[in-house]
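Retro notes
What went well: the complex prediction finally ran end to end.
Inputs used:
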Amino acid sequence: MGSELKRRKRAVVFAFLLLSLAAFWFPLRAEKTEVVFTGIWPYDPPPAGHWNPYATGYHSRFQPLIYEPLAYFLPANQTWKPWLAERWNFATDMKSLVVYLRRGIKWADGTNFTSADVIATFYCDYVVSYPVWRYKSIYAPDKYTVIFNFTKVWKTAPISILTHVIYPRTLFGNFSDRMQYLLSINATAEEFSKLRASLISYRPPQPIGTGAFIPISITESEAWFQKNPNYWRGADTVHVDKFRWIRQTSDDQRNAWWLTGEIDFGGGMVPIAFLKDFMKRPNITILVSPRPAGLQIYFNTRKYPLSLVEVRQAIAYAINRTEATAASMGTGPYAAGKAITIPALMFQEDIDSERWFSKDFVQKYLNSYNYNISKTVEILQKLGFRKGTDGIWVSPNGTRLEISISAPSGWMDCCLVAESVASQLQKVGIAAVARMVPNVQFFQDEKNGAFDMAVDSFSYSFNYEPATYSKTYVDLTLLNKGIGFNPVVDVPWLGKVNVSQCVYDLDSTVDPKEVNKIYQILAYVTNYYLPTLTICRTYTHNFVNHARFVWPEPGDPFYESYNMMYYSGVAYIISSGNLRPRVAVSPQKPQLPSPPYELYAIIGVLAIIAVAGWIIALKKTTKK
Amino acid sequence: MNWVIRRFLFFILTLFVVITSTFFITSAMPGNIIDTYVSERIREGFSVEEAYRMAQALYAINMSEPLLVRYIKYLKNLLTGNLGTSYMYSGTPVFTILIYAVPWTVFISSISVVISFTLGIIQGLWAAYSRKSKISTLMTGTASFLMAVPNYVIATAFLLVFAYHLGIFPRGGAYDAWIRPGMNLEFVASALYHAVLPVMSYIVATYPGWLLLMRSNTIRVLGEDYVIAAEARGLPKSRITYTYVARNAIIPMITNLAISLGSIFGGATFIETIFTYPGIGMFLSQSVGAKDIPMMQGCFLLITVATITANFIVDLLYGKIDPRIRAIR
Amino acid sequence: MAFLLHFARKNVRVCVGIAIVLTFVLMALIGYFIPNIEGNVSEAYQGPSSRHLLGTDYAGRDILLQIVKGATDVLVISFLIALMTTSIGVIVGLTSGYVGGLIDSILTSIMNIILTIPSMPLLMVIASLIKMVPNPFVIAGILSSIGWAGQARAIRSQVLSIKEEEYIEAARILGLRKIEILFNEVLVALLPYIAMNFILSIISAIYSQVGMYYLGVLPFSSYNWGMMMNIARSHGNALWCPSTVMYLVGPMVCIVLLAQGFTMLLPLIDLLNPRLREE
């Protein structure tokens, strides 16, 4: 390695540095006079991300900006906002729905929005879900009416149908036509498979929607959208000219962007420590939206001694749910979760509002399992358990009370709940350990019953009646080994009841009084027999940045929409014209992140030493 | 010649064994993608039925074929260059995703590995040479510090200091969003500009290892008789350093370099997540987390073939580099 | 006594290194006896204060205590992993490089296979089969069974070079047995390299054992340094919040000091090679 080589190498490095500096001088600012809304959220860049809603990898995050539903549903106050549909008629026997479409809506390519588009959308659903289909028929008597007939009573049909986003016939008409043709000739299963495969691999180059925005460019770092000049509500009702969507690839990168103050809306599961610092900034309002979801712990009722109801109840008394929630979700007004008072897979709001049963019922039949260690001791002792020499409870037939609490390792909040519960149980004399398992393995273990206690999410579902119980009593009881719960149980006011059958009955029961009766059974069984112990309800944090836009006041039902989590609420606010730019928008100086400077300074200094060392080394070795 | 043929046969054998093992290991992993998808939707608030319905509509995966049949199909497809269709992105061939992501990965990683290697061995050489001096101690200390710091801390430090506070370099991405990719100066310049920070953090995260290993190697070589003999002969210092010490110290490191070059295709996930850089690292870790079998197999195939080929080439070239071994062969 | 002082004055760095390593050994011993640490969850994620020198974690537990308590497991397991990986790597590398021939080809192929088999899926499969086994030897065994291949390859290439040195030839001519040559000449010459590899292995072992927690082989432990850093980064957002930064930096500083301490001990290895002894 002669000095000639050294010199050449140095020249290359120098040239490289020069070239990168040269890139500096290329102009790169967007139009200053345009109103740009900036958001940050993950998405898949092309070619993984694409514009076919019927295949995974679809740009579902961007959908609210481009496509629109027949109507918006705001669960906070259970109201509807007609959108692409003007009005509708849900039959009293709950077997059909008639939808009347709004006139004068145009797609982004100029064609009219008609019932043919609705037909195309729903038949494409059929292409991918074949042979499962809830509709006896869907047809359009004229260009602005669609009639849906269902095969059986479908209580939540309005929710499912009206919140469905509509795609254009221009893009998907071929597939729905072919589907209708295949159905009419009673084609073979193979033909349907082929059609499905072709739909799934279809890649429209651009989406064509009715919404307020049109995509301009999507790269792996940013996506840009511009206002739809032909928007049916009127382009001047939309006060945002361009939508800039930064791609979030990690929490760190997202935090850095948030801290610059350039992001107008953000959300997700924000760590509580970050919130505390972030919310001190001016112009930031933090919204805490309750999610229709929470955390629960499943018991494997097949495994002795968890198979005894009393043992499960004893364990429930030994778990301080408030503490477990606080460890994982933080405390204070911005906590990401609130502990459940009465574990029955019910939210406190519904219990307090007496939505399905009265306060008397609650008092008589539901137990709040307040944290009480002496009760645990009492129950275990009554069963014949004795504490061994190492302080661990031993059952009458000699088994130590050893439990492993599993949690999916990809969901840290579940893991921290598991750890907190484990240490609490250890204090009582139960040898409990928390164990993280990769997500894929966790869900498989859950189905196969390969766990003792498992911390998992539960959903309260987006429909206006929770289908919360089906995972517990159908998925993990009837359809899989799961928790191994015997669904035939004793209910004090009814005698023996099959609780899984109750969940099935919910689907077809129409009379509200009967529905309430079923919910009473479900709540009681969950609360008394404890196949699962409800821990907390989860919340998401969103924040709005008032620096550049005027947002609706706090408490506005827009905010309580679950959709806020995914920018569809933002799309709704912008599309409905409720978001205005602040007058006299002066470009804000980015507020820079304030991380541990010292740490980074040390690393920076050392990096400099490294390079300096290299230069010195080069010099010294070429000197002689 | 005999020896080359033997090596080549082992190369093919190794390749076959690894491809087969990868297939069976990835298939044996617990869980499946549909259950994961369903559970994630439940977490967001969808009911079980809705989630399953969405999953069934989206994922058209047929798992009923016996494993051996799938294996034979997989081998047949491989021979025709068909890497299968991803589960995570149904309908998108694995090949399409790789074709897009791999060039960026190779671009960043190859530059980083080469520079990191060069930096490390030059400094390691010199640190060993003057190991009693203060600056050598400082550099060795720096190296062992940086080696112990996790790579995401280093990358975040670079991101914050250079992209946010000083604003010299872009905050992320491979090129500016409004530039059309293509062989024009604007695009190339933008790509280079965006590559500086990822490359720099990769280098700072990896060069300490090279430095320290090279230093140890050089210390060994410095104790050799031929070095003392050369010094006694009065050869110029630079000649000794390069022809005698450096060459002999670097030779064993070439194997390590080969392994590094092979793992280039695995991507560096920490770079991709912190700098929003496209590459296979993110796809790879996503597919392992979701058990997207075709995607996993495609990515691992790349890494496997690259590593084994690199090792094979190094083995072949070893004779050229180290004349003493050539003599024996 | 005088000799020790003289030694200390001459080799300050080595003494500092010894002091650092001894501190960690002490930490590990103390940590073993620390009982379960209690925490008040309302004090979670507080910054450094007089009561909690490094602050508190997500459940309100003192971070410094957790670092000390976790030192035992971290150091023992990492040391075991590094020891197993290095010894297997050295043995296989020496054999393969020195013996050559068909054995070399076979061993090299095995090394290549193990190097290129995707380790994450393999570990996931192994973990799903063995469930939870908190035995440190088993953990070290699992991780070393994959990690030795890289080292073996590197050592093999070293041996290939050394094998042809004159003094080896001289030793062979002198009639020394292969084993003697291997140990007394080849191994001794390789010691600095092996020592450096050992230190690098310890550091990477500290980070890779965290994987065992995520795979469910080890029960969740909030005391493991790597685990603390991960939770700090994701749940506590330590890279951004001054109040939780110590949760990330505390364990990191320990790892850094450990690396420095061992690196400072390296000159001791040089003493073992007669060619490198100076003065």
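What we learned: Chain C has a mean pLDDT of 86.
What to try next: split runs per interface for comparison.
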